[in-house]
Structure formats: structure tokens, C-alpha cells
Amino acid sequence: MPPGVRTVGADLTRPASLRPALTGADAMFLLISGDFVSAAGDPGGAVSDLLDVARTDGLKRVVLLSSQGVATRPDSLSHGRMGAAVEDAVRRSGLDWTVLRPGGFSSNAYAWAESISARRTVAAPFGDVGLPFVDPDDIAEVAAAALLQDGHAGQIYELTGPALTSPRQRAEAISAALGEPVHFVEQTPEEARAQLLQFMPEPVVETTLAIIGEPTPAEQRISPDVERVLGRAPRTFADWARRHVAAFRVPRR
């Protein structure tokens, strides 16, 4: 834990439990998990209750990590409607708010870590369909700017990387970072669906496959918002792969 960082346990479904964490705070970074959505039942109402407590305790600013799917998949329960309900609660909170809507994360490639380290193989569907995956470090830096600097209130930032990359290209970038060949195997949509259903609810799987297989123009758009906020271009997937290449190496015995 970095020096000066204080950790406080709380349960977001019990807003009053958050009060010890709010002591002395004037800004909040809000990340809503799938577990919270399931437990809350009404995520928008639960977030409103949470932010009511935060505002009463002196909070002035909230930065929400939302999803690109709120805009691009508005009819999807998992990606659109739930996210829209949370965003609406944040906008109605009376706090200065900023909403971050990233697309796919570069760190999704961690799902390949075991197959690459063990077999130097990546299996994924839609091998040549490109999306502008964003580096989580860029999301974090934009969030920090919105939390700590003025001028971001009332803004919705769409966060993407600087270029479209396909699964095949991302595998090649990891191969280059390793300095070893990585074999790409293209899955059928049915194979990918069966794999994803092992850890995702079916509605989330169906929307995910639609996004990675038949992305809309908005989902393939390169957003200028990372550069607009940070004053530099977003990091590439290859940058991410080089920084995290250790996750894909063969473990030492």
C-alpha cells in the first residue's frame, strides 16, 4: 500500500457503512461491480442512496467508471440499461460528476495468460475484427485528473486506445513482447460462447459476442478524449503487452 493511503472496509449496499471512508474526503471514484448490481436489485436507487450519504458527509465530486455500452448497446440489460440507471443516479446526485465510458480493456488479454505461458497459444473468436482497446493505466490517469482537477464537471469521456486491434494482432503483440512465437487459433462463435458461459451470465455473453463479432461504428470509433484530458496520445496495446509481459512467460520452477 502506498504511504499515506488509508483503507476502510464498507458495504456499498449499506450506504451508512461508507461514512468512515468519507471522513475528510471531497471526491469519490465510483466503480459498480456485477455483485453490487445483483445484491442491490435496483442499482440506480442504491447508488442514489449511497450518494445521498456521501453528499451529506461533505463530498463534492464523483467520478463514475461506466461503460461504452450505455451509449452503444442501450437495449442490453447488462451493458446498457443497468449502466444508464447508475449514470442517471450520478447525474441527479447534486454533486459535480464526471462519467468515464471505456470500451474493451487491454488487460482482457490476461484471459490468455495460462494458454500462452503453458502452450504459446491463443484461442479467440472473430480473429480479424478490430476494436480500440484501452489501457487501464490511461483510464486511471483520466480518473485521477477528473478527481483532482477542476474543469471536468458534467463531462462524459469515452476512453479508447489509439487504434483498432484484432485478437490476432493482440496475440502478435504479446509474441513480440515475449520474443517467442505465439500461435493464434480462431474459435467458432459457439466455442467462444461455451467458454464464456463458464464465468459470465448468458445475457452478458450474448452482448459481449455481439460487440466483439459485429461492433457498431461507434464501438470502433477512436475517441480523442484520453488525449484531450491527458495532453498525450493513449497508450497502444503493444505498450501494455511490453509492460505486462511477465504474466505470459513460462513460470519458473
Automatic annotation (TrEMBL):
Gene3D superfamilies: NAD(P)-binding Rossmann-like Domain, UDP-galactose 4-epimerase, domain 1
Superkingdom to which the source organism belongs: Bacteria
Record-annotated NAD(P)-binding domain positions: 3-148
Protein name: NAD(P)H-binding protein
Lineage, top ranks: Bacteria, Bacillati, Actinomycetota, Actinomycetes, Micromonosporales
